[in-house]
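Moderator note: this is an archived Q&A kept for reference. The question asked for a predicted structure of one protein chain; the sequence and the answer are reproduced below.
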Amino acid sequence: MQYFKHMSNMRHDIKIKRLISKYGLEGYGLYNMILESIVEGITTETPMPELQETCFDIAEFYNIDTFKAEEIVNFCISQELFEKDEITGRIFCSKLYKFLEQSQTRSLEIRKL
């Protein structure tokens, strides 16, 4: 997917406020970059909204400390901004489906989701 819509007042959500309060714009930016990475990976072949990268990858790509990346991601999970698949260990965000409009994809499989 090339884009997804999100609420322009996302920063006012209590969970996001907690994220910003604890980690500042670094946490907010990392959260949104992860969302973008997840959405970018949604295809007909891989319709699950999951992150392919690990926290180590994220830290390396975005030039932040690995421990800090893991800490922020775990905080996001504790706030239910992300979920973690117990089997694969991958991070995913099932609530993204409600922000995807049918017109954003040609894939019938993804539209059904």
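Archived answer notes: The two ends are 14 Å apart (CA to CA).
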